[in-house]
Amino acid sequence: MFRGLALGSGGFVVALIAAIGIFLLLQALPSLQANQVSFLTSGEWTTGDPNDMRFGILYLLWVTVATAAFALVLAMPVALGIALFLTQYAPRALARVFAYIIDLLAAVPSIIFGLWGLQVLGPALVPTAEWLNTNLGWFPLFSDGNVSIRGGGTIFTAGIVLAVMILPIITAITREIFERTPKDQIEGALALGATRWEVIRTTVLPFGRAGYVSGSMLGLGRALGETVALYLILSGASGRAPELSLFDGDATIASKIANDAAEFNNEISAGAYIAAGLVLFVLTFVVNALARWITTSRTGK
Amino acid sequence: MKTKRHLTALGLAAASALLLSACGTDDNSASRGDDAQGGNGGTSGECAGQENIQAEGASSQANAMDEFSVVYQEECAGFSIDYNPTGSGAGIKQFNAGQVDFAGSDSPLKDEEITAATDRCEGAVPLHLPMVFGPVAIAYNLPGVDDLVLDGETIAQIFNGTITSWNDDAIAALNEGVDLPDQEILPIFRSDESGTTENFQQYLEAAAGDAWTSGGGKSFTGGVGDGRAKSDGVASGVASTEGSVTYVEVSFAHSNDLSIAQIDNGSGAVELNDESTGAAITNASLAGDGADMVIDLDSVYGTQAEGAYPLVMATYQIVCSEYPESETAEAVKSFLRVAATTGQENLSTLGYVPLPDEFQEQLLDSVETIS
Lengths: 301, 371
Hints:
The structure holds 2 protein chains of 2 kinds. Chain A has helices at residues 2-34, 58-89, 92-106, 110-135, 155-179, 183-191, 196-225, 228-233, 253-260, 267-300, and strands at residues 45-46, 54-55. By secondary structure, chain A is mainly alpha-helical. Chain A has a single domain (2-299), classed as Orthogonal Bundle (MetI-like fold), CATH 1.10.3720. In chain A, strands 1-2 form a two-stranded antiparallel sheet. Chain A starts with a helix and ends with a helix. In chain B, helix 3 (62-75) packs across helix 13 (326-340) and helix 13 runs antiparallel to helix 14. The two termini of chain B are 28 Å apart. Chain A: It comes from Actinoalloteichus caeruleus DSM 43889.
């Protein structure tokens, strides 16, 4: 009976995911057929007139991937540090309080992060961003983007806010895994005269690496789909092509949908956004598959 | 109280049925007005028809409709209106489907919408009644510069990137004696599709001549600057960024303490206030015929009348000239009467322009033709 239940719920989830995919595809198809430009290689986005639909995913995809990747690059080392500190260095009581505070971050609604990014962090980061742009502008990621740096609505700001948002997820999972490092391994290493850092390097890290990576991928999934915070933070670029810089703006796939949702006047226009949603769906799917693959292949060794 | 009115309504309905006159609505509403009207006076004395009106449409007039609704309930105890601010397109769709009694819309009906609306009104043409006017401010953040004058051409050039610095000669020529800083201009626009952008670009097309060539529509087409979501986004964006400028409904400019540029329409700089926007409305020419009051926006945006502030958005109430149900017609009339008179009193605190006298009379005449 339990087998039946488990099988049923498992099958249900798979069917649900498949249904979402098929639904998105069916809704998007008429718009994709009406599209005048290539959906995958264009960055144009004008969907107001059903008879002249021109939309492509390219610019949105860049901003989506860039914000999420930048956030991940910032959050991963910090999360690792916090998890190691909490499990290996901090006294038990302190660790508990700390863990609680970190988890609390996960409970902050994303609109709060968005407002913080828009009104506090964005303006505060402007001098740093301008310094990076003037002094390290030769490096492509710090060159001029397609929106103004002093407006603050760039991938740079958005990525930092996202990093804070995904930090608790990565930290929580990594901490759980690190805590499960077998005691006898740690004690064995200590008995061999290893310092605390050597213990971490030889036992905790190898044991927890797969969990750390999959936790990060979970964070990446969250970052890719984040909507409201980025909708508030990112400045629109009025159709200008991104410069592949951290100081680009415009919108991610999800924030674009949120931005224009109020003006979906006909199904063909709405279908363009559903097609974009489909890309996001596939992207998230790929990220999760990647995480799964990393987890299994690493633990298999 | 409510039951009593209900009974009266029933009696009246019976009476009018006896008289067999669908056009006898004038008597009907007059007698009804006598007993419904306490002592609130005003020109909008008559309350009649069904007790609740449903309306849907433009969100730009949502605050005005809230105000009208409160005033309507005060003037006509027991009567109410529900306005659902879902957007002009949705409002027209619902109206044409017969789901709501009238629609609010930022733009006049298109031809195919008129056909659908005529079907909905069972053969009677729909009327456009421009009842809510909202001025759009050119709001800027330039410390030390409290008075700034711009004209259509310079505004267009700022928003398409031709003018990039605040001390550009074209701006300096309009602001003699003002110490303009050598600062880069950051235009901020609405990144979502919006009626404000549509009206703003229409204004530029009418007032800037050759300076604005990128066209109109609900999305910003200027190609420069930073986009922000919603009116609140652009206003707070300007508030936090020196050297920036945007176009936004005046209430948002006020709530963010932004400076508002005066506009020179060809006969001197004009400040944005009730009188100057009222002057532009009074000078508007109408494109519709008879009771239908479609405003020829080019006559507003291109106005050269002295003391007229040209950048004003009009929101129409779309009604049937003749409703299939006379009860509905009566209620819509009572509501619009209240909205066009007592309802206007507090509008300027909400960021709208009260109707100028002459225009108000004309509008009331149109309202009276509804049957």
